[in-house]
Design brief:
By secondary structure, the protein is of the alpha/beta class. Helices cover 25% and strands 21% of the residues. The strands form two sheets. Strands 1, 2, 3, 4, 5, 6, 7, 10, 11, 12, 13 and 15 form a twelve-stranded mixed β-sheet that branches. Strands 8-9-14 form a three-stranded antiparallel β-sheet, with no helix packed on it.
Length: 358
Amino acid sequence: MAQRNLRFQDYTVGWVCALPIELAAAAELLDEEHRDPPQDPNDTNLYTLGRIGEHNTVIACLPAGQTGPGAATAVAVQMKSKFTAIRFSLMVGIGGGVPSSSSDVRLGDVVISQPLMEHGGVVQYDFGKTGPNGFIRTGYLNTPPTVLLHAVSKLAANHYRGRGKLSTYLSTITRLPRFAYENTGPDILFKSTYNHTGGPTCARCDEDNTEQRDARESKEIVIHYGTIASGNQVVKDGVTRDRLSGELGGILCFEMEAAGLMNSFPCLVIRGICDYADSHKNKRWQPYAAATAAACTKEIMSIIPASEVAKARTIDDAIEGREGQANTQHPISTLPFGRDIGRTIDPDGPGDMLKCRL
């Protein structure tokens, strides 16, 4: 069957990922793949085009070896310049989980950015200025588009009612051996103060320094909703992970790209948990985590009617309507040097969570 060749203005959804394994998971979920567009000398992106449900979708991946907010911004700017009818975007891929007493985040789970307390869903934890009283975190990142937040609400409701489709979409990807759950390995959480002893695996690490957690009743995906921390550096230290989470009022995962998108390319961030943002991190869980994030994203897209997308403003129009909000509506937090400020974490935790049984 010949691939369809649509116009640039026929695409209404943008999907950005950072790694080839994330691009592969996204492309595998296309219900229909379209012909690649001709290369534009003024656009360095390479696009994967297709349809997911009722939505014509354009997918772009960051250049190999380039990560972080700057690289994500560059990809997004070129995407929205070419595909001017895009209504909303999605940042989808893997992230480092932040387990806590209030959020039982585990490998393979999915985290979705959602406004909570003073944060709009994503916080750039390393952006600010240093003064006599310590580090001052400045600026505010926009919330996801309203149409996506409505979809997240319905996603949660569907899962409460046992009507989720995540496992169905996931099976489309995990039939490929590279993405199979069976190839992930054990899910071990070490104490935050215990560092990796060296080597590509944790075979030499002391099991007496692991956190004891109750086994889940079955192999399942849990969806968490709350704050995602984004920055320019990879977090690979359990103590730092927990300190930053405490300073920010409780976060669910770390990643490196979303901060470059929220104010210029408003999006929902969906992350599959592949490690615990500590020194024990390795890449074994990355394919499966990329698959769970992509499958959850497809479920969100399946909820949104094409008619609602058509009525929404384009990204450029939406940005123009939101200018000035980031610096006027939300407070700045001041963090003293070398100690936790003792901010009280929401008693309900940094986010809700739902289970999808496989």
